[in-house]
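Hi everyone,

Forwarding the result from last night's run.
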Amino acid sequence: MHLKSLKIFCDTVALRSFSKAADENGVSQSNASHAVHQLEERLGIELIDRSTRPFQVTAAGEKYYEGSRAILREYDDLEQDVRSLHHAAAARLSIGAIYSVGLAD
């Protein structure tokens, strides 16, 4: 399973549209639908009931959505923490001294 598939699933549920989720993730509508279908096959359960228009999120889909959102939030937080470490390590340090300190060497 890829985080991209989780993001597509979450966007599909949040936006209530496969095509809007596809646009959000830079993929085709059929690609977004396929990503969700692969998640359903992996889990062996229907997450989205496509038999009605607009589609309905199943009870299992709601549970999976909440868990997936938490995972994606944690991942985003982790990436932000790591980036901030890089920025902290790359900070510039200036040291000042008077010339007489150099004369002692």
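The radius of gyration is 24 Å.

Cheers,
N.
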